[in-house]
Design a protein that fits this description.
The chain has 326 residues and is of the alpha+beta class. The chain has three domains: 87 residues, no CATH class; 38 residues, no CATH class; 169 residues, Cathepsin B, Chain A (Alpha-Beta Complex), CATH 3.90.70. It is 21% helix and 28% strand. The protein has a six-stranded antiparallel beta sheet, with helices on both faces. A four-stranded antiparallel beta sheet has the order 4-5-7-6, with no helix packed on it. The two termini are 39 Å apart.
Amino acid sequence: MLKFIIILLTIISASFENINGPCDSKRGICLDSGQCKSVGGTAYFDNCPNDLSNVKCCENIPCKSDDGRNGTCAFSTECNGESVSGNCPGESDFKCCIGGSGPAVDLFFGPCIAGGGSCIKFQTIGCDTYVQNSLCPGGKHVGCCVAGNRPIFYINLLEHTKPACIIGGKYKSVANSGSGIACLAMAIFVTTREKLDPTDLFKEAYKNGKYSGNGFTHEAISFVGKNHGVKINWTDDIEAVFDELLHGKGVIFNIGSNKKYKFKRGGQYIFLKGAKLDHGLKQVFVFDPDIKNNYVNVLFPLKSSDGGIEVAKIGLNADFGYVYKN
């Protein structure tokens, strides 16, 4: 009996091992959600897997240094400003970051300061040309991938003309029918770092009866994604979508044509990666797989109330799909 009790206590203690420690995202610490609220932070789900349900990842905790300056709590190794002692919860290395920020919210940070490339966390996501320093915000690990505003994960569907199947005597390819599968390939890459040929994903959908010539459904995209290690949550909750983008997720967006945004056709998919909050305006970076539309690495408002791309949403069902590891 004693042995059983000791083992049980060991298991229980292991479930609390991350409290006051870093979240999986390394952007905050694991705290009881009530305590997070009391220190002015924001509690997020799913980033403290070893803890009980009331323990969340607490981020964006405001702080003051001992000499009265305002800052944000961050791990000293992740602060790109001055890391000083202050009124931050957690362990000793979780300090008040003054004049900077904690770890960047994404692997992708938008256009380089001088244009002509994309700011990326290059040690994680990679660059298909070369990295130039001092052209990006976000700390020393973020550099300008000089690639004509096309980061390595981008897929131009017009480059994938090889037939994936024949339906009704017509060849179907990524170039003429595969915006959804091109976006899925981008999402898989930024989520798992596996680079896949979208034509192969197209064939996979067709062979499994998930494509019949009338475009890719959410079910079809989710099915193929699951086979390659990602799960897709489809939603019409615009606030949830923005939070997922801030936390590094890629989002597949089923979009229709409208007068303001000249996307190619109704029923098209585009890929969203990276988000920015500017004086209350929620903005997202768009990667349209149809490069002819010139919406690659372009910053758009998100919400309909701001004239954003939400107004181009199609259908009555969920249209945004955020992607994470399965």
